[in-house]
Amino acid sequence: MCALTIAVVGTRITRVVDQLADRTGIGEAAAGAVLLGGATSLGGSVLSVTAALHGHAELAISNAVGGIAVQTFFLSMADIVYRRANLEHAAASVPNLMQNALLISLLALILLTPYLPDVTIWGIHPVTPLLFGFYIYGLRLVQSASEKPMWRPSQTRETRQDTPEDTSRMPALPRLWGEFLGLAVILGIAGWALEPAATTIATQANLGQTVVGVMLTAVSTSIPELVTSIAAVRRGALTLAVGGIIGGNAFDTLFMAASDLGYREGSIYHAIPDDSTFWLALTLVMSGILMMGMIRRERHGIGKIGAESVAIIALYGLGVVILFAG
């Protein structure tokens, strides 16, 4: 029921964010990263923090890293839906490249932290405020790159520009903000209700919390990203589709920082199990391949699906096999 609620609400919120991007003039890349990425990630963030508060560090961590991995996989699914050309080619933009660079930096910092001293202040590791600060600074760089880019991708027949729709036919701005906030609250409540169900499933089905986090909660709370990216592609909002996934992934790294605030047994980074470390490293590789795809900008690839998308699908499938084999 929670997963179904997240899917339905996530579908609706895409259209609202697309209209807010045009109404406010912030652009689809920024709206996808901040508004769409943040809102659709609320369910997952609430779940991770709730799990951390209850002392379930493994579930909180695996839900965070599993969500980033599956959302990158979902972007490859959106590439399959967009049959005109390779999605990485059509949606190439400086803000999306900056977002992906921010994501890679944040993931690398999380992967590095367990090798730093296990020191906490009031139960909070020093890397936690650093993650928040780095994310905010990164968003400023993304916005600057959007407003005053120092270089631009070459325009081709397959490139789709962020073209605002006719705002006179859209609902009023206060109504759009009200609907956006209402839908975001529903997503957060669904994530809060999903945590006890996931914990019970892990216990009674005799499954590890990493398996439940990566394959159940991460997928369930990431359904909006799949639905919204495909819906955005079908609407022709390619920059929004890619920006929503990458921006959501960058926001999802803050799950770890927020979970560290809720985890009262020490540094949550030093409680990262080996399986989650593997998924962190795998997600870094997937994100790097995605970024190379946006820079390379292959036109058609394998049956109009980018070679990078094929590689990401293969890597995610390999990760699932290794997870269950272990």
Give a short synopsis of this structure.
By secondary structure, this protein is an all-alpha fold.
Please provide a written account of the structure.
It holds the Pfam family Na_Ca_ex. The chain has 326 residues and is an all-alpha fold. The protein is built from 13 helices and no strands. The protein has a single domain, classed as NCX, central ion-binding region (A middle domain of Talin 1, Up-down Bundle), CATH 1.20.1420. It has helices spanning 2-24, 28-40, 42-53, 57-81, 87-90, 94-112, 127-147, 173-204, 209-234, 238-252, 254-262, 274-296, 307-325. α3 runs antiparallel to α4 (57-81), α3 (42-53) packs antiparallel against α9 and α4 (57-81) packs parallel to α12 (274-296).
Topology overview:
Layout: H1 2-24, H2 28-40, H3 42-53, H4 57-81, H5 87-90, H6 94-112, H7 127-147, H8 173-204, H9 209-234, H10 238-252, H11 254-262, H12 274-296, H13 307-325
Helix pairs in contact: 1-2, 1-8, 1-9, 2-10, 3-4, 3-8, 3-9, 3-11, 4-9, 4-10, 4-12, 4-13, 6-7, 6-10, 6-12, 7-11, 8-9, 9-10, 12-13
List keywords for this structure.
mainly alpha; A middle domain of Talin 1; 13 helices; K/Na/Ca-exchanger; NaCa_Exmemb; calcium, potassium:sodium antiporter activity; membrane; transmembrane
